[in-house]
Amino acid sequence: MANHKSAIKRDRQSKVRRMRNRMNKSRMKSAVRLVEEAIVRGTMEEAREALQKAIPVIQKTAAKGTIHRKTASRKVSRLTRKVNRMASAA
Which domains are present in the chain? Predict the structure, then answer.
């Protein structure tokens, strides 16, 4: 445990930030999982709808600094590609 006043505050702040980042990342992972589940089920309309809901969640997670902006872009791109590939296969 920290002994200096500033170190105690830093510890407190880092705990709050860690919990906030975990919450944001968990929300993003859930949104991504819903898209991937819809793809596995093969329901095109549901997959597109889930993707449209997931994209802003991923972008907000990046905007808040929880993940890097290029990581967010890559996730959106890969999900979109999966949904489009599913559409072309059907």
Answer: 5-89 (1.20.58.110)
